[in-house]
Every structure is written in structure tokens, then in C-alpha cells.
Specification:
Layout: E1 3-11, H1 14-30, E2 33-39, E3 53-59, H2 62-70, H3 72-84, E4 85-93
Antiparallel strand pairs: 1-3, 1-4, 2-3
Length: 99
């Protein structure tokens, strides 16, 4: 069953972040992940939430997601993200929505 990771990004260093976003898609793909959306065109709707950038990634299952972010490939890129952004993320597991 698919799982999703929703990420809110506040960019602090656009140069470092550009390097991260150039390299991270390969790591995501290696672990059966797919970008659903990556955008800075975010319009607040309610609750005062005003993110600079939103990213939604889908993985085939929770194990793929965990393996991705525990991988040596991700560990090599994580410092770029940590230095270049303020990031919050959540994992969303699909539930049966029938009836």
C-alpha cells in the first residue's frame, strides 16, 4: 500500500538547495519513490499555513521510504538539505477509504 511523505521547505540558501534538488531525485527513484508534486507555487487556504515550498513523494510501501532515508546515498545528501533549508515533514499511510 502506498505511503506519502509531505515536506514543507523554507529555503535559506538557494545555491546549496539547488545542488540538493539536482541530486536527490536519483536517490528517491532508487527506492521506488515518485514525486507527485514539487512546487513553490503554494497558495495558503486556511489555518495561517504559508510554506515557501511543498513536496509530495509517493513510495510503494513504508519499507521503501524508510530504506531511502536510511540509505548511505541519502546520508551523503542530507547535510545539503539541513544547511540550506528549514524542513518539516510527515509520513502519510494510506487507509482503506471504502464506505
Amino acid at each position: 500500500m502506498s505511503v506519502f511523505m509531505l515536506v514543507e521547505i523554507g529555503v535559506k540558501d538557494s545555491g546549496l538547495y539547488a545542488e540538493y534538488i539536482r541530486r536527490i531525485p536519483d536517490v528517491i527513484r532508487q527506492h521506488n519513490g515518485r514525486y507527485i508534486v514539487r512546487s513553490s507555487k503554494v497558495t495558503p487556504n486556511s489555518g495561517g499555513w504559508k510554506p515557501d515550498r511543498i513536496i509530495l513523494v509517493e513510495f510503494d510501501n513504508i519499507d521503501n521510504l524508510r530504506e531511502c532515508f536510511a540509505s548511505p546515498e541519502y546520508a551523503a545528501l542530507a547535510p545539503l538539505r539541513e544547511r540550506s533549508t528549514a524542513t518539516r515533514s510527515i509520513v502519510i499511510e494510506s487507509e482503506n477509504t471504502d464506505g
